[in-house]
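Data availability (excerpt). All sequences and predicted C-alpha coordinate strings are deposited with the supplementary files. A representative entry, Malate dehydrogenase, is shown inline so that the format can be inspected without opening the archive.
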Amino acid sequence: ISLRNHKPLVTVAARNADVRPRAAATYKAAVLGAGGGIGQPLSLLLKMSPLLSHLNLYDIANVKGVAADLSHCNTPSLVTPYTGAEELAESLKGVDLIIIPAGVPRKPGMTRDDLFNINAGIVKTLVEAAADYAPKAWINIISNPVNSTVPIAAEVLKKKGVFDPKKLFGVTTLDVVRANTFVAQQKTLRLIDVDVPVVGGHAGITILPLLSKTRPKTEFTQEEIEKLTVRIQNAGTEVVEAKAGAGSATLSMAYAAARFAESCLRAIDGDADVYECTYVKSDVMQELPFFASRVKLGKDGVEAFVHTDIRGLTEYEEKALQALIPELKGSIEKGINFVNKQP
Ligand code: NAD
Ligand code: LMR
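C-alpha coordinate line:
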Protein backbone atom coordinates (compact mmCIF):
# COMPACT_ATOMS: atom_id res chain seq x y z
CA ILE A 1 0.00 0.00 0.00
CA SER A 2 1.33 3.36 -0.98
CA LEU A 3 2.02 5.99 1.63
CA ARG A 4 1.62 8.82 -0.86
CA ASN A 5 -1.35 10.14 1.07
CA HIS A 6 0.85 10.82 4.00
CA LYS A 7 2.90 13.49 2.27
CA PRO A 8 2.27 16.73 4.15
CA LEU A 9 -0.02 19.18 2.39
CA VAL A 10 2.65 21.81 2.56
CA THR A 11 4.32 20.01 -0.35
CA VAL A 12 1.27 20.70 -2.45
CA ALA A 13 1.05 24.26 -1.17
CA ALA A 14 4.68 25.03 -1.87
CA ARG A 15 4.44 23.50 -5.32
CA ASN A 16 1.35 25.51 -6.05
CA ALA A 17 2.39 28.87 -4.65
CA ASP A 18 4.50 29.98 -7.56
CA VAL A 19 2.80 28.35 -10.52
CA ARG A 20 0.39 29.94 -12.94
CA PRO A 21 -3.14 28.59 -13.36
CA ARG A 22 -2.85 25.47 -15.48
CA ALA A 23 -5.05 22.99 -17.26
CA ALA A 24 -4.94 20.54 -14.32
CA ALA A 25 -7.23 22.79 -12.24
CA THR A 26 -10.59 21.49 -13.42
CA TYR A 27 -12.64 20.37 -10.43
CA LYS A 28 -15.24 22.24 -8.42
CA ALA A 29 -15.75 21.99 -4.67
CA ALA A 30 -18.26 23.49 -2.24
CA VAL A 31 -17.63 23.99 1.48
CA LEU A 32 -20.88 24.17 3.48
CA GLY A 33 -20.16 25.95 6.76
CA ALA A 34 -17.22 27.80 5.21
CA GLY A 35 -17.35 30.77 7.60
CA GLY A 36 -16.69 28.70 10.73
CA GLY A 37 -13.69 27.65 12.76
CA ILE A 38 -12.92 24.72 10.45
CA GLY A 39 -14.47 26.23 7.32
CA GLN A 40 -12.09 29.18 7.09
CA PRO A 41 -8.70 27.44 7.35
CA LEU A 42 -10.05 24.52 5.31
CA SER A 43 -11.05 26.92 2.55
CA LEU A 44 -7.57 28.45 2.63
CA LEU A 45 -5.95 25.03 2.25
CA LEU A 46 -8.37 24.12 -0.56
CA LYS A 47 -7.52 27.41 -2.27
CA MET A 48 -3.97 26.04 -2.52
CA SER A 49 -5.07 22.93 -4.40
CA PRO A 50 -3.77 22.73 -7.95
CA LEU A 51 -6.75 20.53 -8.84
CA LEU A 52 -9.55 23.02 -8.07
CA SER A 53 -10.88 25.50 -10.63
CA HIS A 54 -13.83 26.64 -8.48
CA LEU A 55 -14.26 26.93 -4.72
CA ASN A 56 -17.81 27.72 -3.60
CA LEU A 57 -18.12 28.92 0.01
CA TYR A 58 -21.54 28.58 1.62
CA ASP A 59 -22.62 29.56 5.13
CA ILE A 60 -25.60 31.14 6.82
CA ALA A 61 -23.32 33.98 7.96
CA ASN A 62 -19.86 35.50 7.67
CA VAL A 63 -18.85 34.11 4.31
CA LYS A 64 -18.65 37.15 2.01
CA GLY A 65 -15.58 38.53 3.78
CA VAL A 66 -13.91 35.12 3.91
CA ALA A 67 -14.39 34.71 0.16
CA ALA A 68 -13.20 38.25 -0.66
CA ASP A 69 -10.10 37.66 1.44
CA LEU A 70 -9.28 34.25 -0.05
CA SER A 71 -9.98 35.38 -3.61
CA HIS A 72 -6.82 37.52 -3.54
CA CYS A 73 -4.54 34.48 -3.26
CA ASN A 74 -2.83 33.91 -6.62
CA THR A 75 -3.80 30.25 -6.92
CA PRO A 76 -6.05 28.79 -9.63
CA SER A 77 -9.51 28.47 -8.09
CA LEU A 78 -12.23 31.07 -8.45
CA VAL A 79 -13.75 31.70 -5.00
CA THR A 80 -17.47 32.55 -4.79
CA PRO A 81 -19.51 33.24 -1.64
CA TYR A 82 -23.08 32.02 -1.14
CA THR A 83 -25.01 33.23 1.90
CA GLY A 84 -28.28 32.02 3.36
CA ALA A 85 -30.69 29.24 2.46
CA GLU A 86 -31.80 30.94 -0.75
CA GLU A 87 -28.26 30.69 -2.20
CA LEU A 88 -27.59 27.08 -1.14
CA ALA A 89 -28.83 25.54 -4.41
CA GLU A 90 -26.61 27.79 -6.52
CA SER A 91 -23.56 26.93 -4.39
CA LEU A 92 -23.98 23.25 -5.26
CA LYS A 93 -24.68 23.25 -8.99
CA GLY A 94 -21.99 21.43 -10.97
CA VAL A 95 -19.69 20.66 -8.04
CA ASP A 96 -17.65 17.45 -7.88
CA LEU A 97 -16.95 17.52 -4.14
CA ILE A 98 -19.04 18.79 -1.22
CA ILE A 99 -17.38 19.21 2.17
CA ILE A 100 -19.65 19.76 5.19
CA PRO A 101 -18.21 21.25 8.41
CA ALA A 102 -21.50 23.10 9.23
CA GLY A 103 -22.82 22.75 12.75
CA VAL A 104 -22.04 23.45 16.38
CA PRO A 105 -18.85 22.24 18.11
CA ARG A 106 -18.47 20.77 21.63
CA LYS A 107 -17.80 22.65 24.83
CA PRO A 108 -16.03 21.05 27.84
CA GLY A 109 -18.14 18.34 29.47
CA MET A 110 -20.08 17.50 26.28
CA THR A 111 -19.92 14.34 24.20
CA ARG A 112 -20.13 14.49 20.42
CA ASP A 113 -23.55 12.87 20.69
CA ASP A 114 -24.72 15.92 22.70
CA LEU A 115 -24.46 17.81 19.38
CA PHE A 116 -26.94 15.47 17.69
CA ASN A 117 -30.08 17.55 18.33
CA ILE A 118 -28.72 20.59 16.48
CA ASN A 119 -26.37 19.08 13.92
CA ALA A 120 -28.62 16.24 12.71
CA GLY A 121 -31.11 18.75 11.28
CA ILE A 122 -28.36 20.90 9.73
CA VAL A 123 -26.76 17.91 7.97
CA LYS A 124 -30.15 16.62 6.81
CA THR A 125 -31.06 19.97 5.22
CA LEU A 126 -27.68 20.37 3.52
CA VAL A 127 -27.62 16.82 2.16
CA GLU A 128 -31.19 17.18 0.84
CA ALA A 129 -29.95 20.14 -1.19
CA ALA A 130 -26.89 18.17 -2.29
CA ALA A 131 -29.19 15.38 -3.50
CA ASP A 132 -31.28 17.86 -5.48
CA TYR A 133 -28.53 20.01 -7.01
CA ALA A 134 -25.37 17.86 -7.09
CA PRO A 135 -26.57 14.25 -6.99
CA LYS A 136 -23.32 12.84 -8.37
CA ALA A 137 -20.94 14.76 -6.13
CA TRP A 138 -18.70 13.12 -3.54
CA ILE A 139 -19.73 14.17 -0.03
CA ASN A 140 -17.29 14.56 2.90
CA ILE A 141 -19.08 14.87 6.25
CA ILE A 142 -17.16 16.55 9.08
CA SER A 143 -20.09 17.68 11.31
CA ASN A 144 -20.39 15.70 14.54
CA PRO A 145 -21.48 13.24 15.69
CA VAL A 146 -19.96 11.69 12.54
CA ASN A 147 -21.04 8.21 13.70
CA SER A 148 -24.67 9.38 13.22
CA THR A 149 -24.45 12.22 10.67
CA VAL A 150 -23.12 9.91 7.94
CA PRO A 151 -26.04 7.44 8.34
CA ILE A 152 -28.36 10.50 8.31
CA ALA A 153 -26.82 11.62 5.02
CA ALA A 154 -27.17 8.10 3.58
CA GLU A 155 -30.87 7.92 4.50
CA VAL A 156 -31.56 11.35 3.01
CA LEU A 157 -29.82 10.38 -0.23
CA LYS A 158 -31.73 7.07 -0.31
CA LYS A 159 -35.06 8.88 0.15
CA LYS A 160 -34.12 11.11 -2.78
CA GLY A 161 -33.16 8.04 -4.85
CA VAL A 162 -29.55 9.16 -5.39
CA PHE A 163 -27.57 7.28 -2.74
CA ASP A 164 -24.23 6.07 -4.03
CA PRO A 165 -22.49 4.41 -1.04
CA LYS A 166 -19.15 4.76 -2.81
CA LYS A 167 -19.32 8.56 -2.68
CA LEU A 168 -20.37 9.30 0.90
CA PHE A 169 -17.57 9.68 3.45
CA GLY A 170 -17.30 10.49 7.14
CA VAL A 171 -14.03 12.34 7.60
CA THR A 172 -12.00 10.46 10.22
CA THR A 173 -8.64 11.59 8.86
CA LEU A 174 -7.94 13.61 12.02
CA ASP A 175 -7.78 10.37 14.01
CA VAL A 176 -5.12 9.05 11.62
CA VAL A 177 -3.23 12.36 11.67
CA ARG A 178 -3.20 12.28 15.49
CA ALA A 179 -2.21 8.62 15.67
CA ASN A 180 0.69 9.20 13.27
CA THR A 181 1.86 12.27 15.20
CA PHE A 182 1.67 10.70 18.67
CA VAL A 183 3.37 7.46 17.56
CA ALA A 184 6.16 9.33 15.76
CA GLN A 185 6.76 11.44 18.88
CA GLN A 186 6.69 8.47 21.24
CA LYS A 187 9.00 6.34 19.11
CA THR A 188 11.16 9.14 17.65
CA LEU A 189 10.29 8.15 14.09
CA ARG A 190 10.29 10.36 10.99
CA LEU A 191 6.69 11.60 10.79
CA ILE A 192 6.55 11.28 7.02
CA ASP A 193 7.18 7.51 7.33
CA VAL A 194 4.57 6.71 9.99
CA ASP A 195 1.25 5.17 9.05
CA VAL A 196 -1.22 3.95 11.69
CA PRO A 197 -4.62 2.73 10.45
CA VAL A 198 -7.52 3.89 12.63
CA VAL A 199 -10.81 2.00 12.32
CA GLY A 200 -14.30 1.98 13.85
CA GLY A 201 -15.94 5.38 14.19
CA HIS A 202 -15.23 8.89 15.40
CA ALA A 203 -16.11 9.14 19.11
CA GLY A 204 -14.45 7.82 22.26
CA ILE A 205 -13.94 4.06 22.27
CA THR A 206 -15.27 3.74 18.71
CA ILE A 207 -11.96 5.30 17.59
CA LEU A 208 -9.64 2.29 17.36
CA PRO A 209 -6.01 2.83 16.32
CA LEU A 210 -4.47 -0.44 15.17
CA LEU A 211 -1.00 0.08 16.57
CA SER A 212 0.07 -3.46 15.72
CA LYS A 213 -0.31 -2.46 12.04
CA THR A 214 1.94 0.59 12.35
CA ARG A 215 4.28 1.12 9.43
CA PRO A 216 7.22 1.02 9.61
CA LYS A 217 6.92 -2.08 11.80
CA THR A 218 7.21 -0.79 15.39
CA GLU A 219 7.32 -2.60 18.73
CA PHE A 220 5.27 -1.20 21.63
CA THR A 221 5.04 -2.30 25.24
CA GLN A 222 1.51 -3.06 26.47
CA GLU A 223 1.68 0.09 28.61
CA GLU A 224 2.60 2.20 25.56
CA ILE A 225 -0.25 0.65 23.56
CA GLU A 226 -2.82 1.42 26.24
CA LYS A 227 -1.59 5.00 26.80
CA LEU A 228 -1.38 5.80 23.08
CA THR A 229 -4.80 4.27 22.37
CA VAL A 230 -6.48 6.30 25.11
CA ARG A 231 -4.69 9.50 24.04
CA ILE A 232 -5.79 9.06 20.40
CA GLN A 233 -9.37 8.32 21.53
CA ASN A 234 -9.44 11.40 23.78
CA ALA A 235 -7.46 13.79 21.57
CA GLY A 236 -10.59 15.72 20.56
CA THR A 237 -11.47 16.22 24.21
CA GLU A 238 -7.87 17.30 24.90
CA VAL A 239 -8.40 20.19 22.44
CA VAL A 240 -11.93 20.99 23.68
CA GLU A 241 -10.61 21.32 27.23
CA ALA A 242 -7.59 23.40 26.19
CA LYS A 243 -9.89 25.77 24.25
CA ALA A 244 -12.01 26.03 27.43
CA GLY A 245 -15.37 26.85 25.84
CA ALA A 246 -14.09 28.41 22.60
CA GLY A 247 -14.84 25.29 20.50
CA SER A 248 -13.06 22.15 19.38
CA ALA A 249 -10.25 21.29 16.95
CA THR A 250 -10.34 23.60 13.95
CA LEU A 251 -6.80 23.98 12.57
CA SER A 252 -5.70 20.34 12.77
CA MET A 253 -9.17 19.41 11.48
CA ALA A 254 -8.85 21.78 8.54
CA TYR A 255 -5.47 20.20 7.76
CA ALA A 256 -6.96 16.69 7.98
CA ALA A 257 -10.04 17.59 5.92
CA ALA A 258 -7.90 19.25 3.26
CA ARG A 259 -5.74 16.14 3.04
CA PHE A 260 -8.84 13.96 2.66
CA ALA A 261 -10.33 16.32 0.06
CA GLU A 262 -7.07 16.31 -1.88
CA SER A 263 -7.16 12.49 -1.85
CA CYS A 264 -10.72 12.55 -3.21
CA LEU A 265 -9.76 14.99 -5.96
CA ARG A 266 -6.69 12.96 -6.91
CA ALA A 267 -8.84 9.84 -7.15
CA ILE A 268 -11.45 11.65 -9.27
CA ASP A 269 -8.56 12.87 -11.43
CA GLY A 270 -7.49 9.28 -12.13
CA ASP A 271 -4.66 8.71 -9.65
CA ALA A 272 -4.74 4.94 -9.12
CA ASP A 273 -2.80 5.01 -5.86
CA VAL A 274 -5.03 6.69 -3.28
CA TYR A 275 -5.78 5.10 0.09
CA GLU A 276 -7.45 6.66 3.15
CA CYS A 277 -9.15 5.52 6.35
CA THR A 278 -12.71 6.83 6.29
CA TYR A 279 -16.16 6.10 7.77
CA VAL A 280 -18.32 4.67 4.99
CA LYS A 281 -21.11 2.23 4.18
CA SER A 282 -19.29 -1.03 4.68
CA ASP A 283 -19.55 -4.76 5.06
CA VAL A 284 -16.15 -5.11 6.71
CA MET A 285 -17.91 -5.74 10.06
CA GLN A 286 -21.08 -7.78 9.74
CA GLU A 287 -22.92 -6.04 12.60
CA LEU A 288 -22.05 -2.48 11.50
CA PRO A 289 -23.47 -1.03 8.27
CA PHE A 290 -21.08 1.94 8.61
CA PHE A 291 -17.47 1.47 9.66
CA ALA A 292 -14.22 3.41 9.32
CA SER A 293 -11.40 1.48 7.70
CA ARG A 294 -8.84 1.93 4.99
CA VAL A 295 -10.27 2.07 1.49
CA LYS A 296 -8.84 2.46 -1.97
CA LEU A 297 -10.35 5.45 -3.73
CA GLY A 298 -10.90 5.40 -7.48
CA LYS A 299 -12.56 7.58 -10.09
CA ASP A 300 -16.04 6.53 -8.93
CA GLY A 301 -15.46 6.59 -5.18
CA VAL A 302 -14.64 3.65 -2.89
CA GLU A 303 -13.07 1.06 -5.16
CA ALA A 304 -12.02 -1.55 -2.57
CA PHE A 305 -11.73 -2.18 1.16
CA VAL A 306 -8.31 -3.01 2.58
CA HIS A 307 -9.28 -6.04 4.67
CA THR A 308 -5.73 -6.89 5.71
CA ASP A 309 -5.69 -4.06 8.31
CA ILE A 310 -8.35 -5.72 10.44
CA ARG A 311 -7.08 -9.28 10.06
CA GLY A 312 -4.62 -10.77 12.54
CA LEU A 313 -5.33 -8.24 15.31
CA THR A 314 -3.76 -8.53 18.74
CA GLU A 315 -5.96 -9.72 21.62
CA TYR A 316 -6.13 -6.14 22.94
CA GLU A 317 -7.27 -4.78 19.56
CA GLU A 318 -9.75 -7.63 19.03
CA LYS A 319 -11.34 -6.93 22.44
CA ALA A 320 -11.48 -3.20 21.74
CA LEU A 321 -13.10 -3.92 18.37
CA GLN A 322 -15.79 -6.08 19.96
CA ALA A 323 -16.32 -3.44 22.69
CA LEU A 324 -17.02 -0.62 20.24
CA ILE A 325 -19.74 -2.50 18.34
CA PRO A 326 -22.75 -1.71 20.61
CA GLU A 327 -21.97 2.03 20.86
CA LEU A 328 -21.34 2.44 17.14
CA LYS A 329 -24.42 0.37 16.26
CA GLY A 330 -26.55 2.59 18.54
CA SER A 331 -25.23 5.79 16.94
CA ILE A 332 -25.89 4.43 13.44
CA GLU A 333 -29.46 3.46 14.35
CA LYS A 334 -30.05 6.85 15.96
CA GLY A 335 -29.09 8.56 12.69
CA ILE A 336 -31.21 6.26 10.54
CA ASN A 337 -34.25 6.68 12.83
CA PHE A 338 -33.87 10.46 12.82
CA VAL A 339 -34.50 10.60 9.07
CA ASN A 340 -37.16 7.92 8.93
CA LYS A 341 -39.32 9.32 11.73
CA GLN A 342 -39.59 12.62 9.83
CA PRO A 343 -42.37 13.27 7.34
P1 NAD B 1 -18.04 26.65 14.16
O1 NAD B 1 -19.19 26.97 15.03
O2 NAD B 1 -16.80 27.46 14.31
O3 NAD B 1 -18.47 26.75 12.63
C1 NAD B 1 -19.62 26.14 12.15
C2 NAD B 1 -20.12 26.94 10.98
O4 NAD B 1 -21.31 26.30 10.51
C3 NAD B 1 -20.52 28.40 11.34
O5 NAD B 1 -19.89 29.29 10.44
C4 NAD B 1 -22.02 28.42 11.16
O6 NAD B 1 -22.53 29.65 10.69
C5 NAD B 1 -22.20 27.31 10.11
N1 NAD B 1 -23.56 26.80 10.05
C6 NAD B 1 -24.42 26.53 11.06
N2 NAD B 1 -25.60 26.10 10.56
C7 NAD B 1 -25.46 26.08 9.22
C8 NAD B 1 -26.31 25.75 8.15
N3 NAD B 1 -27.57 25.34 8.35
N4 NAD B 1 -25.84 25.86 6.90
C9 NAD B 1 -24.58 26.28 6.68
N5 NAD B 1 -23.72 26.62 7.64
C10 NAD B 1 -24.17 26.54 8.89
O7 NAD B 1 -17.72 25.10 14.37
P2 NAD B 1 -16.40 24.30 13.89
O8 NAD B 1 -15.38 24.35 14.96
O9 NAD B 1 -16.06 24.72 12.51
O10 NAD B 1 -16.98 22.78 13.89
C11 NAD B 1 -17.96 22.39 12.97
C12 NAD B 1 -18.35 20.94 13.17
O11 NAD B 1 -17.26 20.07 12.90
C13 NAD B 1 -18.79 20.59 14.59
O12 NAD B 1 -19.92 19.78 14.56
C14 NAD B 1 -17.61 19.82 15.16
O13 NAD B 1 -17.98 18.94 16.19
C15 NAD B 1 -17.15 19.09 13.93
N6 NAD B 1 -15.78 18.57 13.97
C16 NAD B 1 -15.55 17.36 13.42
C17 NAD B 1 -14.28 16.82 13.41
C18 NAD B 1 -14.01 15.50 12.76
O14 NAD B 1 -12.94 14.93 12.99
N7 NAD B 1 -14.88 14.98 11.94
C19 NAD B 1 -13.22 17.55 13.98
C20 NAD B 1 -13.48 18.79 14.52
C21 NAD B 1 -14.78 19.30 14.53
C1 LMR C 1 -12.26 16.05 17.21
O1 LMR C 1 -11.98 14.85 17.23
O2 LMR C 1 -11.42 16.92 17.48
C2 LMR C 1 -13.64 16.48 16.79
O3 LMR C 1 -14.49 15.40 16.68
C3 LMR C 1 -14.19 17.57 17.65
C4 LMR C 1 -14.55 17.11 19.04
O4 LMR C 1 -15.66 17.42 19.46
O5 LMR C 1 -13.74 16.49 19.70
